[in-house]
Amino acid sequence: MLITSSADVADFCARAEKSEFVTVDTEFVREKTYWPILCLIQIATRDEAVAIDPLSEGIDLQPVYDLMRNTSVLKVLHSASQDMQIMFNASGGMVEPVFDTQIAAMVSGYGDQPAYATLVQRIVGETIDKRSQMTDWSRRPLTDRQVDYAIGDVTYLIDIYDQLTKELDEKERTDWAHEEMRHLRDTALYDVDPRELWRKVRLRRPTRRALAILREITAWREISAQRRNIPKGWVCRDEALAEIALNAPQTPADLERVRGINERFANRSDGRALLDAVQIGLAVPDDECPDPEKGRPPLRGHETLVALLQALLKLRSDENGVAAQLIANRKELDRMATEDDPDIRTLAGWRREIFGNDALALKRGEIALTADGLSVRVVSA
């Protein structure tokens, strides 16, 4: 059912708020905008499933946003962070509480970041028709095929939720899954500080002064893109920002020499604003400039030890039916190999129990890995 009126939105949400949980998905486009354009909201209960059209003239979505914040109704999503970001941008509020089926599936042994279509096939036994997957959801009218495809995303999700919660309970891993989902409630994931985005731009051999400049010009770009509602890469690309931070251009002529910056940009308002941001970065007191991340010198034999840890991780991951990525990533394995007592998630809670303690024992030479035909097993050293 496609809902295009405020009255129908309110009626459905009044019924949905009496449910224990609802499944949720969204469709959006953002190729030419900074802020994603919300094009469709799909919600299902055990009794009904609807697609709500946010682009219908005059439609009031407040009942939807109220439902998303209703703490007595669990919201079930797959790979939830992106949909939660969309809802946060649209309503200014958090979706809560949330159950992420991708995280639950990783804890239950369905692999690293299993796709929604994979879970539909493995749990529901259906194959999703992907012909509508790359459609332009902003075009109207929507076709019946589009609506059916969109609603299918939330109806299948009910069966997936039921199966995963059953498996988590049987394996006594419900707490593990909820621990992993806790980070989804962090508002910093959705309300990003523009002055922190410099950390995502890579510099070659950065100095503290270059990072101070990068912090200012990256914040300027983000705010400019938000204000004009265009992709931030359309304002200035990362590569250009990195070169500007390292070379600190002072004039439009200096700015023109930066790869990716043309004469028109350098001599108009954007160029002047960018040069002003450079000056702000140059004026930051020395003791307030960011510190470059200190590289950790690898121990001798670092790569070989990491390879052993990876083999042990695969072994324990398979034995316990938990996605390896959920237990430890490459950066964490590097730190285990090169630090005596790293403060990492791998050495806490359930991760330490199924992998961390053995990883430390392997590093100390207390256990070893041996091959038995095509199998690998752990033996006392």
Features:
DNA polymerase, domain 1; 381 residues; two-stranded antiparallel sheet; 3 domains; six-stranded mixed sheet; alpha/beta; Nucleotidyltransferase, domain 5
Walk me through the structure.
With 381 residues, the protein is an alpha/beta fold. The chain folds into three domains: 2-189, Ribonuclease H-like superfamily/Ribonuclease H (Nucleotidyltransferase, domain 5, 2-Layer Sandwich), CATH 3.30.420; 194-288, HRDC domain (DNA polymerase, domain 1); 302-380, HRDC domain (DNA polymerase, domain 1), CATH 1.10.150.80. Helix content is 50%, strand content 11%. It has 17 helices and eight strands. It has helices at residues 6-16, 62-69, 80-91, 101-107, 116-124, 144-170, 174-181, 208-228, 232-235, 238-247, 252-256, 263-266, 269-283, 302-320, 324-327, 330-338, 349-364, and strands spanning 2-3, 21-29, 37-44, 49-52, 74-77, 98-100, 367-372, 375-380. A six-stranded mixed beta sheet has the order 1-4-3-2-5-6, sandwiched between helices. Strands 7-8 form a two-stranded antiparallel ribbon. A hairpin with a 2-residue loop joins strand 7 (367-372) and strand 8. The longest helix is centred in the middle third of the chain and has 27 residues, at 144-170. It is flat. The relative contact order is 0.08. Mean pLDDT is 93; it is low at 295-299.
